Structure formats: C-alpha cells, structure tokens
Amino acid sequence: MEKPRERRGKRREQQLARTTVDRRLDNNKKVFRIYRAAGLSVKRKKRKRLVRVGLPSFTAIRSNQQWAIDFVHDRMANGRTIRVLSVVDTFTRECLALEVDTCLPSRRVTRTLERVIAARGKPERIRMDNGSELTSRHFLAWGID
After folding, report:
1. Do 83 and 129 belong together in one domain?
2. Which residues of 56-92 are buried (b: 16+ CB within 10 A; e: fewer)?
3. pLDDT tens digit sequence for 27-40
4. E strand or H helix at 71, and its extent?
5. pLDDT by residue (tens digit) across 10-24?
6. Residues 33 and 101 in one domain
7. H-helix or E-strand containing 96?
8. Do the domain assignments include residue 138?
9. How many Å separate Cα 139 from the centre of its chain?
10. Is residue 57 part of a domain?
C-alpha cells in the first residue's frame, strides 16, 4: 500500500497486494484494518447529475382541453394481475373512461380513446407517461393521425 495520494480504494489495494506483494492478504477484514490504520480512506466521488430545466406545467382552463391517461395495476385474490386504463379530464377531474383487463395492448387503448373522442370531442392535448402501450408504433401512428 503505497502512494497515499493516488486514488485507490481498499478493494483495488487488496487486488494489487494479492498479485504483487503478499498472497496472505486474501482476508478482506485484514486488508481493511491495514487500510484504515494507514489512514488511506478514499472519499466516494459524488455522482454528477444532469441539470435539467423544467418546463412550465400546463394548466387547463376549460373542459376537454387536456386529458390524462394512465395505467393502474392491481392483483386479484387468485394472483392474476389486472390493469386499469383511466382517461381523466384534467380540468373537471371527470373520469372519461375506465378500461379493465388482464392485458391492455395499444390497439385496445386507441379503441377506447376513439370511443371517448366520439362521445366528447377531440382534446387539445393528451398527457401520458412513457408506458409500453403508449409508445408503440401503433399508438404513435394513431396520435399523428
């Protein structure tokens, strides 16, 4: 264990000691005691985080301006998982559609949205997360149309 200025941790020192100096340093606890006695603790580097500028959140000022789509998961008593697709008007907090099934593929989601659009009209925007059903080619093609 040399060069205390060099940035090496306990594991790296143990690996170097095994290969070059002494094969008796296979004991992790012994290496840790020697490492601490020499005052060689290495501080962990803080992870650099990407600074993101947040977009201002959109607030609806009238009905049918923005809808929110989300999935909720639950498990039944027999162990089967069910999924619930909920479509909500964000201004009125009215639930426009609830679709419950064990599997909700993107075609079923678009069919539900088409049914709600036929009854209520098309919203200006639809807010959703990046779920697999909501990022499929079929759903994206439906959104462009």
Report:
1. yes
2. eeeebeeebbbbbbebeeeeeeeeeeebebebbbbee
3. 777 777 777 787 77
4. strand 66-75
5. 677 677 777 666 666
6. no
7. strand 94-101
8. yes
9. 20
10. no
